[in-house]
Amino acid sequence: MKTTKLFVLLVIAALVSGCASKGFVEEQIRASESRTSTQLTDVSGRATDMETEIEQLKALSRELSEKTDMAINQAKGFESYQVVWQGEVNFDFDSYDITPVAEQTIMEAGQKMESSPKSLVELVGHTDYIGTNKYNLLLGERRAESVKRYLADRFGVSLYRMFTLSYGKEKPLELPDQANATHKNRRVKIVIWSDLT
Q1: Cα angle 144-80-88, degrees, rounded to a multiple of 5
Q2: b/e sequence 148-172, b meaning 16+ C-beta within 10 Å
Q3: Which of 17, 49, 104, 128 could form a disulfide with 185 if both were Cys (CB 3.0 to 4.6 A apart)?
């Protein structure tokens, strides 16, 4: 904007001094307006992209909120349920594949669910801090769904007994500057609830 004003002042000074013709001035003004218009279009395009991403994040947030509300409604009548087992499984960078180490923990969870047929499991996906919020929410969900699929395939756990949720990078166990923080934060927390009465 300052450049445009300076340019206009120079053109006016040139006119006053008699060194420039009217056609030259008009040509320079048109060129300046064209550059300004291009810059405004570019800024407007970036703003539109940001608005689109914000709307997508809001939609994802609403979807997660609805899932949570649905889980709470489905859990009515389960007031006597208590946590009977907890564990965590970790994932490789940018992956939702179950590792051999993770299998051991999931097997333990599956055995616990087999021994308690009325139990429910909560599977909460997390990620490290690398990447966008949207991408990490989806990655956390995929990780939780991988554990859910494993429990369904290997132990026949009914889908209505399993609830998934993703926090993405929003609830880290470790801060980025701590040792092994990214590995510890790439996880699914498994919580099994059962009626102890």
Answers
A1: 25
A2: bebbeeeeebeeebbbbbbbbbeeb
A3: 128
Q: What is the pLDDT of residue 47?
A: 73
Mean pLDDT split into 10-residue runs, the chain, 197 residues:
58 55 70 76 75 78 71 62 92 92 94 90 93 93 96 92 92 71 88 86
Token digits for 154?
């290997």
Per the CB < 8 A criterion, the answer to whether 125 and 140 are in contact is yes
What's the length of the chain? 197
Structure tokens at 100: 């051999």
Cα-based torsion angle of the residue sequence 95, 97, 98, 99 in order, rounded to the nearest 10 degrees: -70
H or E segment to which residue 125 belongs = strand 120-126
Sign for the CA dihedral angle at 90, 92, 95, 101 comes to negative
Q: Measured between alpha carbons, how far is 188 from 14 in angstroms, rounded to an integer?
A: 70
Each domain of the chain, given as residue ranges in start order, spans 2-52, 75-195
Using CA atoms, how far apart are residues 120 and 193, in angstroms rounded to an integer? 5
Which helix (H) or strand (E) covers residue 147, if one does?
helix 133-155
User: Is domain 75-195 given the CATH code 3.30.1330.60 in the classification?
Assistant: yes
User: What's the rounded Cα separation, in Å, for the pair 144 and 189?
Assistant: 8
Parallel, antiparallel, or unpaired: how do β-strands 187-195 and 81-90 relate? antiparallel
Torsion of CA 15, 17, 20, 23, to 10 degrees: 30
Instruction: Look up the pTM and report it.
Output: 0.60
